[in-house]
């Protein structure tokens, strides 16, 4: 057991999907995994292990924001030996070419957080995805006919930002979307020599007049990223 995860050694697979919403983790386990068993209920941050197409896979919620995902991802890596971590979450588009319900693969994650700068104050250290996972996910998504964008995202510490205009302006530099976790996940993966990728579904747009998705839709219907994430985890 770790501080925040009650699983025993061996209950968590070495590859895992990480949705922010623990109820999305439950949905994935119930709809995609065979023989799924719950390994964590601490703080209602549900985690499950089962099989997907014969491969042992886990899924666990991380909560919202970089502090929260940093706790769970570090314990999964250090205490349970997880080697492949794929975030499957939502993001807000800041690019007019990126639309609601489309996928974004975060090739890199800029951030306004000090979570990395606290360790490296003299550098602007870019956070990047594992290329092998990114490459596999992109080709899997395209083969499945999903509209998919690859590029930079902004991992923000602030949901209700006073700098919304400045954040939106990043879209003109090719930044696809704003989310709240990828940079921290990529930093932890780099620290510990494991693989990480962020796959996001656009749930709303800050630049296009599109209808936002509901909480229920975000929890239960964003299945494209779940399929791509699972297929990427088991790809050779």
Question: How would you summarize the topology of this molecule?
Answer:
Layout: E1 15-18, H1 22-32, E2 34-40, E3 47-52, E4 55-60, H2 66-80, E5 84-93, E6 103-111, E7 127-128, H3 131-143, E8 148-155, H4 164-169, E9 177-179, H5 182-192, E10 195-205, H6 215-220, H7 223-234
Parallel strand pairs: 1-4, 1-5, 5-10, 6-8, 8-9
Antiparallel strand pairs: 2-3, 3-4, 5-9, 6-7, 6-10
Helix pairs in contact: 2-5, 3-7
Tell me what you see in this structure.
This protein has 236 residues and is an alpha/beta fold. The protein is built from seven helices and ten strands. The chain has helices at 22-32, 66-80, 131-143, 164-169, 182-192, 215-220, 223-234; strands at residues 15-18, 34-40, 47-52, 55-60, 84-93, 103-111, 127-128, 148-155, 177-179, 195-205. Helix 4 links the parallel strand 8 and strand 9. Helix 2 packs parallel to helix 5 (182-192). The relative contact order is 0.21.
The average pLDDT value, as a whole number, equals: 96
Order of helices and strands: EHEEEHEEEHEHEHEHH
Globally, the shape reads globular
Beta content comes to 25-35%
Task: Please give the count of helices.
Answer: 7
Separation of the first and last Cα atoms? 30 Å
- Whole-angstrom Rg: 17 Å
Sheet with most strands: 5 strands, mixed, barrel
Number of strands: 10
Broad structural category: alpha/beta
Q: What strand order characterises the main sheet?
A: 5-9-8-6-10
Range of helix content: 25-40%
Low-confidence stretches: none
